[in-house]
Amino acid sequence: MSTLQQVAFRAGCSVATASRVLNRNGPVSDEMVRRVRRAAAELGYRAGGRTGNGRPAIGVLIPSVTNPVFAASLSSIQNRAFHAGHSVLIAQSNYDPAQEPDAVASLLQQQPTGLILTVCDPERSMALSSALPPTVLLGNLPTTRFTAAVATDNFGAGRDLTDHLLQKGHRRILFISGHFAASDRAKLRYLGYIKAMEAAGQQPLAALEISFVCSLEQLDLSDTISRLDPTAIIASNDLLALGVMGALRRQGFSIPHDISVAGFDGISLGFLGEVSLTTVEIPDGTMGAAAASLLLDMAENAAPPRHLIVPYRLRSGGTVRNLAN
């Protein structure tokens, strides 16, 4: 088994410097970080914590363990990690920026090889303000400091879905979302909606923001519908779109005859209703696998951080009525 002294010798640095790099407890230049990690990888040296099964671990932060989107990502991360000899540690923030630092701190206590994080807003997250091991943002755009990220073009997805509804003859399109402070992905989708509406010469409506973790079976849209009279509603994710459809039906509306509904993500639940949900499919499983591969490459092979964009696909379903005919 290789030792820290051997790693330091191969990297051409002191044992103290090698220790700072591998234990992430002090300032070291980026070049030295790459050299020490490369030496450790070549020698098979592991400084990270291990789970009860003896494997090194990857720490993963997601907003919610109940959303199928993150379940798909986690499954792919776990599969990729398992084949690389790693376990996965999971924490959730409940879409609350204030919970993120404690959630990340709990992961760091296990001394993971690295972290895969989906945060509410990477530019404002306090969880990203301290020294972290190799880190990949999943679903978030990269920042100046955290340049490794795997995401899709949420702005483009919001624009394209809105264009689809406009082409179907809809003009009063309402955007319903979880709180934007809880999801930069939802905010980008709304900004894409605004762009498409303005490009078409239409007045965008102010978004209706509700809690991502509210009881959707109790969602009441009666005041909003009577006040704004939309012909179509875009929800910021598919779970919310299904909750919107339930709320509309409780009010006696028929979908899509009275009001059309569309969402984002492409979760399998959207296929199970009387009509399939019009949605933008986001390949969350592919994104999770890519994030895990990128993280392991950075942590074990000193690979440079990269920003990977995964394409989305618009899937036209039966929940949008064509008003143009």
Automatic annotation (TrEMBL):
Please name the GO terms that the record assigns under molecular function: DNA-binding transcription factor activity; transcription cis-regulatory region binding
Taking every annotated instance into account, which residue ranges of this chain make up the domain HTH lacI-type?
2-46
- What are the record keywords, sorted? DNA-binding, Transcription, Transcription regulation
Q: Tell me which Pfam families the record gives.
A: LacI, Peripla_BP_3
Task: Report the transmembrane regions from the record.
Answer: none
Its recorded name reads Transcriptional regulator, LacI family
Organism of derivation? Rhizobium miluonense
